[in-house]
Write a structure and sequence with these properties.
Blueprint (H helix, E strand, L loop, with lengths): L9 H9 L7 H11 L4 E4 L6 H15 L10 E4 L3 H15 L8 E4 L5 H7 L5 E4 L1 H9 L10 E4 L2 H6 L3 H8 L7 E6 L4 H10 L4 E4 L10 E7 L5 H11 L5 E4 L3 H13 L4 E4 L5 H12 L5 E4 L14 E4 L6 H8 L9 E7 L4 H11 L4 E4 L3
Helix pairs in contact: 2-3, 3-4, 6-8, 13-14
């Protein structure tokens, strides 16, 4: 199914085409028509499954037709657990709203930074993305009001409950109008989520996207035992000696992703880093350049392990191990797709050897390992 069959207005379809979005994700296929129809929705889907756009696009479509609320009375409220997700969701709204006929303004607010600039920026905001604590601070300061909220989104609701936002969310619910559309997204359907679901959702459409199991049969896995300080030189040697032309490299942190990409560029290998500190537009440009062969190496963190979907990606390199065996499988599963063979190389330091044994045990496969000569 194509985006044009989901009921979105032409202006959003043009924006999707301009940004090279071809086919919608499964959750988008099911969620977008239901949200456009004004239904409450419970979406169960993992991070990286396309769920943010599954509510951003229909919300923007609704707002084209909806009269805007008065100043400091927001139309749409999106509650999220972390600053990083707030910024990410704001970027997705920015990404799709710049061609809309009416100026629709979105803003992310969160704690850990001065509240005064956020209070000033709330002038004429239509869509507010907020962490619960900072939102309550802004409400107490009369900087924003919730009486005109037409759509409420809870994104990563499972994480919000795990991080102890339940009391704050209950306080926010009491300030919202009874008549509104409610959209709740979660990675799991836990008992806590069921309780929230029963409180705020009215006869919802339930969309549950089952997690696909990665097929590892087409992936040749190999690796090298190497000291931490020699990983950089070994990575560059492998790329050059094996003439690897399209390589996705995974690191465990934002700092390391930037560091690895910088070192590659200094050694004549065109590379870019993508991670949560980069804007949505920057990430999309880097991914587009990588797919088009304009850059040889894309260095990413686990945040994007699911979101990067390249049908013919030949090689993945784990510069550092991920935290869990499941994340390792998600990483290497970016290659070996659509019937094509892939190569996954893992660099393992002395400190990582025990953890890598656990990963292999959980995966049920032994990885062919070599001692690095560098």
């Amino acid at each position: 199914m194509a985006f044009k069959n989901l009921g979105l207005p032409l202006v959003l379809l043009d924006t999707l085409a301009e940004q090279n979005y071809s086919d919608p994700y499964p959750i988008q296929v099911k969620a977008i028509p239901a949200i456009l129809a004004g239904e409450d929705l419970l979406g169960i889907a993992k991070t990286g499954s396309g769920k943010t756009a599954s509510y951003v696009l229909p919300i923007l479509a609704q707002m084209i037709k909806r009269p805007k609320a008065k100043n400091r009375h927001v139309d749409v409220l999106v509650l999220v657990p972390t600053r990083e997700l707030a910024v990410q969701v704001q970027d997705v709204f920015f990404q799709f709203c710049h061609h809309l006929p009416d100026r629709i303004k979105a803003l992310a607010v969160y704690g850990g930074v001065s509240i005064n600039p956020q209070m000033i920026s709330l002038q004429n905001i239509n869509i507010l993305v907020a962490t619960p604590g900072r939102l309550l601070d802004l409400i107490e300061s009369k900087a924003v009001h919730l009486t005109n909220v037409a759509t409420l989104v809870l994104d990563e609701a499972d994480k919000m409950l795990n991080l102890g936002f339940k009391d704050e969310m209950n306080a926010i619910f009491k300030l919202l109008p009874n008549k509104r559309q409610n959209l709740l997204f979660s990675a799991t359907l836990s008992p806590d989520i069921s309780a929230i679901h029963e409180i705020i959702l009215n006869n919802p459409t339930v969309v549950k996207i089952e997690e696909e199991k990665e097929n590892l049969d087409l992936i040749h896995q190999t690796g090298y035992f190497v000291s931490s300080e020699k990983k950089g030189p070994l990575l560059r040697h492998l790329i050059k000696s094996k003439n690897l032309t399209q390589v996705l490299v995974f690191t465990a942190s934002v700092y390391k992703a930037d560091n690895v990409a910088n070192k590659l560029r200094k050694n004549g290998i065109e590379a870019e880093a993508v991670h949560s500190k980069k804007s949505q537009g920057t990430r999309l440009n880097a991914l587009a350049n990588f797919k088009a062969g304009k850059i040889r190496v894309l260095v990413a963190t686990d945040l994007l392990a699911r979101g990067i979907d390249i049908e013919l990606l030949p090689c993945v390199i784990n510069f550092e191990l991920p935290r869990s065996p499941k994340d390792y499988v998600h990483r290497i599963g970016r290659t070996g797709r659509a019937g094509n063979e892939g190569l996954a190389i893992t660099l393992v330091s002395d400190e990582e050897k025990h953890h890598f044994k656990i990963i292999q045990k959980k995966m049920g496969r032994q990885v062919e390992m070599f001692e690095s000569e560098i």
